[in-house]
Amino acid sequence: MERLVLLSPAEQKLRLDKVRAAMAQRGIKSGLVSSNPNIYYLTGRVFSGYIYLPPDDSEPIYLIKRPVHLLADRTISIRKPEGVLSELKIRNWPLPEALGLELGRLTYNMADRLMAAFLPDGTKALDLSRCLDEARATKTPHEINLMKVSGAKHERVYRKIPQLFMPGMSDIELQIEIERVSRLEGCLGQFRIAGEDMEIHMGNVLAGDNADAPSPYDFAMGGAGMDPSLPVGANGTLIRTGMTVMVDMNGDFTGYMTDMTRTFALGEIAEKAHQAHQLSIDICSTLAKMGVPGVEAKVLYEKAEQMVTEAGLTDYFMGHRQHAGFIGHGVGIEINELPVIAPRSRDILAVGNAIALEPKFVIPGTGAVGIENTYIVTPTGMECITKAPQELVQLQK
Amino acid sequence: MERLVLLSPAEQKLRLDKVRAAMAQRGIKSGLVSSNPNIYYLTGRVFSGYIYLPPDDSEPIYLIKRPVHLLADRTISIRKPEGVLSELKIRNWPLPEALGLELGRLTYNMADRLMAAFLPDGTKALDLSRCLDEARATKTPHEINLMKVSGAKHERVYRKIPQLFMPGMSDIELQIEIERVSRLEGCLGQFRIAGEDMEIHMGNVLAGDNADAPSPYDFAMGGAGMDPSLPVGANGTLIRTGMTVMVDMNGDFTGYMTDMTRTFALGEIAEKAHQAHQLSIDICSTLAKMGVPGVEAKVLYEKAEQMVTEAGLTDYFMGHRQHAGFIGHGVGIEINELPVIAPRSRDILAVGNAIALEPKFVIPGTGAVGIENTYIVTPTGMECITKAPQELVQLQK
Predict the structure, then answer these.
(1) Ordered domains of chain A (ranges, CATH)
(2) Is A162 on the interface with B (CB under 8 A)?
(3) pLDDT in tens, B175-190
(4) Residues of A numbered 338-357 whose beta carbons fall under 8 angstroms of chain B's beta carbons: which are they?
(5) In this predicted structure, what is the pLDDT of residue A328?
(6) What is the pTM of this model?
């Protein structure tokens, strides 16, 4: 038999306490955790089933579909959610009260089915999603360590990129070599995105004007993609002199992702592109100093916008034909966590936030420029954990 | 401006007619299509927004969030679903009646929000999910062509596998080289799976006894994976003499996927493994002949089970420590479509079904054996579109 919970008891308690505190604020007394990212968050592994958080603040009860060999203090082996209530009764374990479900992740049909199975009196479930999002927004020291491991491996991959380039390559050919090196370095490939609307494979390599092709997805940058079934990223552009190549590839080496972008150039590129790239670096270092606990996320956005306006580069900021509405986002198990660094964000920075800042520009005729780093919010500011060289790097020496 | 609908009018009509017919059977008069796979199905591209199918059977109305430059006969540019009703009224376009939503795909919160926005009288939406699933289960000739293109490229990748193997390789190292060759052949990487519970990166390479490690996902085979955050597939097993290596990798080269598995061996392997592999080939060819329109899916399952029982290989069929409950499944835009080839399936085969059959075995001490092919149901039986050699192939000549 294999132990179900891979976190230490102290680590699991840290996480559960945060979730419970967020539940208490919303009057949610019990919860059913059902999504892979949140099951992973609370146990350190993905399994098929549910984590039931009983109303008496006692230990979680694990409702396990698959795999069948996992061991924990309180488990019920289930095939489907119907019947769990009577299993709880048989064992004299606490029944749900003011139950929260992941209504922001569960499908309507499944939420409906879980409500019928767990709340036979016809009451509605409360929404547990935000409690988990908020708990996950501040990382524990153990989670920060995993992110730093990802950041270091991510950096090793990016340092190899100039060696992977060969003259005559297209954007997708370069991307495929980066994917391979990244996988050999231990990248799990999995790119977890909250919400069903966003799709991408391993990340984004944008060469030249393809950076200006608008995509349907809510990423900072677009790109036409290789096929209309997945219209984002590399589109087969031949990498030519005078172009930039922006690389924003998967940093999931540990279950926790770092997000890092670097920009490469082939030969001489336009002066405006150099200027915008340097501004991106400057914005990141300015915001990193400002980003102390208690600062409003939107204040960081406003500062970036102000720096861009002063430089006269507004038309190119966060896209040219289509503009993204944010410059940064939380990151961890998924690529889009709290806090959001956007004009209308109500988030406030806190110790342990992991934030990717990505002030990027699209310069027509040249391509995308700018950088992205992942930072951890500390009492004195934001610590960068993605340390590849930030300046524009020549693909050919 | 770029045309939104990439399908020919005749092709789009074929698909819409099938969806409309399935809606009529359920009393659904209008629909809102919201998920990427279904938006792609009805237009030939992914965009962010909704396809509104009005109650009068007239042309679709496209509600577009992103990208902003798409052109179609009837479009409304939207930022959010609230307010669409008044936009419809202004244009004198038909309002929703007996509205269907994708309740099997939308999150509870989003379905709730769409109901409030589109059904202000408080009526509940009907479930459109199954209508789209059923329409997509029988492919049009155009879709079958895309699947055949994927099948041919998939085959070219698999034929290269023995050249990619080098002595001393682990399963994941071999997988990474297959991923690279596959991507260079045009594989989009994207591996669309319906439902949020299943995750995998580019497919599954299982060496030796790792094939017997149960995973949480509802795939035919498991594998421990490289990390508990993604516990499926290759786990770093060194490929040794006497082992089999089962390869089941991503066949999405066109937006439509083929599903194909082949098994490789290093040196001599156990006689029972040879026997089970041959039985898998025999089951596939027997079922392919039986699989004419009108046959019940469960009858195919029963035939496979009977052949396995007669051979005395039941203990190893579809897993050893943990058994999968199906031997085949529909495939197309997603890897898990209708029909399902399982004991309790109510599906009945029809012309145009694309079905992956995967009768597989796990032989302790050796590994997984068997094959998987994708077939198109024709009036005279199932046509195989994944044509790599089926026999056990030696990794080293």
Answers:
(1) 2-135 (3.40.350.10), 138-394 (3.90.230.10)
(2) no
(3) 999 999 999 999 999 9
(4) none
(5) 98
(6) 0.98
